[in-house]
Specification:
The chain is of the alpha/beta class. It has two domains: 138 residues, HAD superfamily/HAD-like (Rossmann fold, 3-Layer(aba) Sandwich), CATH 3.40.50.1000; 67 residues, Orthogonal Bundle (DNA polymerase, domain 1). The chain is built from ten helices and six strands. The longest helix has 19 residues.
Length: 220
Amino acid sequence: MCKAFIFDLDGVITDTAELHFQAWLRMANEEGYYFDRKINEQLRGVSRRTSLSIILAGTKLSEIQTTVLMARKNKYYLEQLESLSEKDILPGIRSLLLELNARGIKVAVASASKNARYVLYQLGLIPLFDAICDGWSVVRSKPEPDIFIHAAGQLRVNTCDCIVMEDAEAGIHAARAAGMQVVGIGPSARVGQADWHFNDTATFDLTTVLENAEPNMMPG
């Protein structure tokens, strides 16, 4: 029985991927590191520190240098977030959240982003969530299952009673490692390992998922 829905943020609730890309690109150009959209795809669903490590491509920096670059990228990203509003909610998501609330199914966000709460505030969605779990909530980020296990704990439900909506391969691995079933949003090449696959949020069908959810799925 599904007692909770746990959402990733970027690419599921809103698409801030382009904002992240522009912020990383600006930082990389300033520092002389090569960065393009192909490399950017590797950053989907992972932490800021891991993202920077991918961009550095083996270049070793001190902890101070690493912290400075992460902070600068985040500054550029936050500047762009100021223009984010309800119009940036992906199709079908607000109505889905309202339907889950009406059905008594708990909802949470589980995102690697340390700006998740601010993004949800800008979108006007905070009142629709029972829990917000972000990059500050756990030490190990996706593909480790920690943030999803933490979210289930915040909602006071068993992990086997949760369904996750994700758009990243790392997130799908994390959710399955937590013993949760997963809805994949995006191209099958990226999210094909999910239990259900939809090309985008607009085509998501809650009834289909709930009717076919396995009861008490246990970690494999």
